[in-house]
C-alpha cells in the first residue's frame, strides 16, 4: 500500500511539474507553483490542480457553458451594438478610450447622469428606491448575496414587485454566495423571482469552474437606471461584525444611455447562467433619453475575454496621468508589470497616492500588499493606511477621470474573475470622488520610508511568506 501511495504521489507530482512548464503563463507564477508542488507534498499538486492549471488555454474554453457565451457574442453582437438608436460618442481624442474599445469592445456613451454613493446605507437605500419605482423588470447580479437584513429587504421588495407584475431576475456567484441555497434560495423562487447561480459547483465541471468566479455587482431597473460598484449584499456594510468594523465602499447610480451598456453585460451573463432565451426584446432594451452631461465607458472582462481588459485599463490610466494617480483598493497586489508602471509614473513626476486598509480580511493579501511598500516608498509613492476597512476599487487619473467598479489590483481580477468597471469622464464627478479620497487620506497614516524600511524581521518574514504566494492569489 505504501508503495502504491508513493507511485501515485510521484505520478501526480511529475504531472503537475510538467503542466506548469508547458502551460505556465509567467515565470514568477510558474516558479511559485513549482516550489509549492515540491515542498507541499500532495497539497501542492492539489492546490495547483484546483487553482493553478491554466484552463484558459484548453478545458475552460471547451466547456459547453463557455461555448454558449462565445456563441452569444457571435450571434447577437450586431443586435446589441445596434440596439441603441442614439449616436455613441467617439473617443474624444482620448487614447485610453480608443485602447479600451479595442481591448474590451466598450464604447463611450454621452449624456448620462451619475450619482456617487459612499457606504452601505446610502447605496442600498438608492437601490431600494429605484426598485420600488420599477414598472417592467428588475435585474440583479451579485458576487455575494448573503443572508441578513439586506437580503430580507430584497426579498420583501421582490415579493411586492412580482405581485405588481414586474419581472425580477437574480443572479449570484455560486462560490461567493455558498450560503444562498436550499430554503433561502427556494423562498425567492417561490415568489416568482428567476434565480440562477453563476458557474455552479457541480460534479463534472467543478474542477474546471472553481477558479473562475463572477465578481460583478450590477442592478438594472427597467433598462433606464443602473447601479455598479464594489458592494455586495452583506450586512457588513450596515453594521460591524468583526474587528474590521463596518465595511466602506463606493458605488455609482447611473441614469442615461450608459445603462444599456451595463445591461448588455447582465444580459450576456444571464443567458449564460439560465436556460432562458436572450433578453433582447425592445422591452429590455428601451430607447434611453439624455439624462445628464457625463460621458461613460463600461469595461467588462473575464476568463472568456480575448484581452485582460481590466489590467489594460489600469495600466492605461497610470501611463496617461500627467499630475496625479489616486488608488484605493483592499487587495493591492499589482504584480511586476503594474508595479513597474507605477514606479515609472512616480519617477516621472506623477504624484502616486495609495489608500489601503490597515487591517485586512486576508492574511496573505495584507502582507502581500506590504511586501511592495518599500519599493514604492523608495520612489516617493505616498502610501496611506486607513483604520476603517475599505472594500472600494477606485482609481482616479488627474482631475478628469475616475474608475469605480469591481476589479481589484490582483491576478484574480485580471485573469480569473468576471469583472466590470465604470469609467467616468467628468471633472465634476471626479472632483466629488477626489474630495472623499483626500478626506480619507488626511485621516489615515502616511507611511514614512525610513521608518518602514527599519521594520522588524518578523514583519519582513511575513511579507516574504505572503509574497511567495502572491502570484497565486
Describe the structure.
The chain has 473 residues and is α+β, with helices and mostly antiparallel strands. The protein has three domains: 52 residues, no CATH class; 218 residues, Endonuclease Chain A (Endonuclease, Chain A), CATH 3.30.870; 164 residues, Endonuclease, Chain A, CATH 3.30.870. Helices cover 45% and strands 18% of the residues. The protein contains 19 helices and 15 strands. The protein has a 15-stranded mixed β-sheet, with helices on both faces. Helix 1 runs parallel beside helix 3. The longest helix has 22 residues. The radius of gyration is 22 Å and the shape is globular.
User: How large a portion of the residues is in β-strands, by DSSP E?
Assistant: 15-25%
Please give the order of strands in the largest beta sheet.
4-3-2-5-6-7-1-8-14-13-12-9-10-11-15
Give start-end ranges of low-pLDDT stretches. 58-62, 84-88
Described by the principal axes of the CA atoms, the overall outline is globular
- Number of structurally distinct domains: 3
Predict the CATH topology of the largest domain: Endonuclease, Chain A
Amino acid at each position: 500500500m505504501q508503495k502504491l501511495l508513493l507511485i501515485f504521489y510521484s505520478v501526480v507530482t511529475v504531472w503537475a511539474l510538467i503542466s506548469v512548464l508547458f502551460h505556465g503563463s509567467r515565470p514568477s507564477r510558474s516558479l511559485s507553483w513549482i516550489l509549492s508542488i515540491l515542498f507541499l507534498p500532495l497539497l501542492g499538486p492539489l492546490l495547483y490542480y484546483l487553482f493553478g492549471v491554466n484552463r484558459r488555454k484548453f478545458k475552460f474554453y471547451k466547456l459547453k457553458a463557455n461555448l454558449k457565451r462565445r456563441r452569444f457574442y457571435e450571434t447577437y453582437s450586431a443586435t446589441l451594438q445596434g440596439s441603441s438608436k442614439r449616436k455613441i460618442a467617439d473617443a474624444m481624442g482620448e487614447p485610453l478610450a480608443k485602447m479600451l474599445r479595442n481591448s474590451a469592445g466598450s464604447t463611450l456613451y454621452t449624456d448620462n447622469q451619475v450619482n456617487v454613493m459612499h457606504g452601505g446605507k446610502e447605496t442600498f437605500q438608492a437601490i431600494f428606491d429605484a426598485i420600488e419605482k420599477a414598472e417592467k423588470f428588475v435585474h440583479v447580479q451579485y458576487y455575494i448575496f448573503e443572508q441578513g437584513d439586506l437580503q430580507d429587504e430584497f426579498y420583501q421588495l421582490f415579493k411586492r414587485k412580482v405581485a405588481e407584475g414586474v419581472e425580477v431576475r437574480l443572479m449570484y456567484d455560486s462560490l461567493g454566495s455558498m450560503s444562498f441555497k436550499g430554503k433561502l434560495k427556494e423562498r425567492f423562487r417561490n415568489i416568482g423571482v428567476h434565480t440562477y447561480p453563476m458557474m455552479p459547483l457541480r460534479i463534472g465541471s467543478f474542477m474546471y469552474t472553481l477558479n473562475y468566479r463572477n465578481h460583478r455587482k450590477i442592478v438594472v431597473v427597467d433598462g433606464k437606471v443602473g447601479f455598479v460598484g464594489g458592494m455586495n449584499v452583506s450586512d457588513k456594510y450596515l453594521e460591524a461584525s468583526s474587528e474590521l468594523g463596518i465595511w466602506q465602499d463606493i458605488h455609482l447610480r447611473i441614469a442615461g444611455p450608459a445603462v444599456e451598456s451595463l445591461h448588455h453585460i447582465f444580459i450576456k451573463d444571464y443567458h449564460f447562467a439560465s436556460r432562458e432565451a436572450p433578453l433582447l426584446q425592445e422591452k429590455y432594451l428601451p430607447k434611453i433619453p439624455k439624462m445628464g452631461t457625463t460621458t461613460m465607458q463600461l469595461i467588462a472582462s473575464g476568463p472568456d475575454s480575448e484581452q485582460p481588459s481590466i489590467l489594460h485599463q489600469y495600466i492605461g490610466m497610470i501611463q496617461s496621468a500627467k499630475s496625479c494617480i489616486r488608488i484605493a483598493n483592499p487587495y493591492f497586489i499589482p504584480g511586476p508589470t503594474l508595479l513597474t508602471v507605477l514606479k515609472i509614473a512616480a519617477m516621472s513626476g506623477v504624484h502616486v497616492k495609495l489608500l489601503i486598509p490597515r487591517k485586512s480580511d486576508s492574511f496573505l493579501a495584507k502582507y502581500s500588499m506590504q511586501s511592495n511598500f518599500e519599493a514604492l516608498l523608495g520612489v516617493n509613492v505616498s502610501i496611506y493606511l486607513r483604520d476603517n476597512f475599505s472594500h472600494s476599487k477606485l482609481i482616479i487619473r488627474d482631475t478628469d477621470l475616475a474608475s469605480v467598479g469591481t476589479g481589484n489590483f490582483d491576478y484574480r481580477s485580471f485573469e480569473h474573475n468576471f469583472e466590470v468597471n465604470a469609467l467616468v469622464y467628468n471633472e465634476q464627478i471626479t472632483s466629488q470622488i477626489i474630495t472623499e479620497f483626500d478626506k480619507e487620506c488626511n485621516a489615515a497614516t502616511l507611511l514614512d520610508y525610513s521608518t518602514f524600511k527599519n521594520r522588524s524581521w518578523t514583519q519582513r518574514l511575513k511579507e516574504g511568506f505572503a509574497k511567495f504566494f502572491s502570484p497565486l492569489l
